[in-house]
Amino acid sequence: MYLFITHKEKEKEKEKANPHATEAPMSAQQKRVMELKRSSLQLQNVHPNVLAKYLHRGVLYQDKDVVVINKPYGVPLRDDTGVMSIASVLPVLSKMMDGMKIKSDSQLFPCLGLEKEATGALLLARSEEAVEHICNMQRNNDVQRKYWVITVGVPVPSEGMIDIPIIEREVTGPQPHYKMALSPLFRMNDAGDGVTKVRSHREAHSAATKYRVLDSNSGCSLVELQPFTGVKHQVRVHMAFAVSCPILGDHKYSHWSKLAPQKLPERVLGKLGLEQSKTRYVPLHLHARQLIMPGASEAEINVSCPLPKYFTQTLKRLHLTLPDEKEDK
């Protein structure tokens, strides 16, 4: 008796033996989306000890009073809902830094904040007295924090100071929500040929940010920001609403009236290898690049933090050059 097997049946047998063999290869865009997803979710759902070890490997500076670590993307500094945060693993991290001694009494305290979606140099104090001292220095503008961001658009002029107060406002509509917004002290006069000072809103916070364009290309820019005040979402609001150049991946402040993924120009989408429907996967490109402050002795503490991989990949795709690379050319 002969057994006849058709070509289709052979293919089915192959599929059963190796179900992944017939899957279509991923397109360049699918690979890019997977890449962005991985960079966003890297450390958000790991065991606390894994996060503590990662932070321990990323210690940028330490002395008897302070520690500076490299904060990863997507992990909040604090979280009251039970979600893992930097603060929740500090007891384990301080023990690791003390050589895992059983009777270790060393502690670490967060003192200067950094947003969940931001990366870079995060300052921790070794005592409550050090926290108080750092907060006093911050109030006196003795602590300099410089951020690097990639913006959608090119700020004009290429450097300057944004000094516009910020206030939290409710956005009404189909999806009511709250956002930080500009609360300027001046408005155009009725004649339209000048500005008139208006009474500042009592709930507005003074906010000042110095900015400098480091490079621009493909309709985007690498910008250095130095905030002189610490208002919530300050640099994001100033870039989006004061100079109309929102930070790449800022899905909250790229629109005022709605909650939606950032809309990017076709030229930028092409460079990033994405379609508009996939921009929700683009992470916020906001990196705490440098921290400068007086040390316990006469020596100044000056710490620079390397850029995360997704940030450097975006720079390459947009053909944006780092300052030190410009000098080498």
UniProtKB/TrEMBL annotation:
Q: Does the keyword Transit peptide apply?
A: yes
Subcellular localization, per the record? Mitochondrion
Q: Which InterPro entries does the protein's record reference?
A: PsdUridine_synth_cat_dom_sf, PsdUridine_synth_RsuA/RluA, RluA_PseudoU_synthase
- What GO terms describe the biological role, i.e. biological process, of this protein? pseudouridine synthesis
Q: Where is each Pseudouridine synthase RsuA/RluA-like domain found?
A: 65-240
Gene3D superfamilies hit by this protein: Pseudouridine synthase (3.30.2350.10)
Per the record, the domain of life is Eukaryota
Per the record, the similarity remark reads: Belongs to the pseudouridine synthase RluA family.
Q: Can you name this protein?
A: Pseudouridylate synthase RPUSD4, mitochondrial
Q: Which organism is it from?
A: Monopterus albus
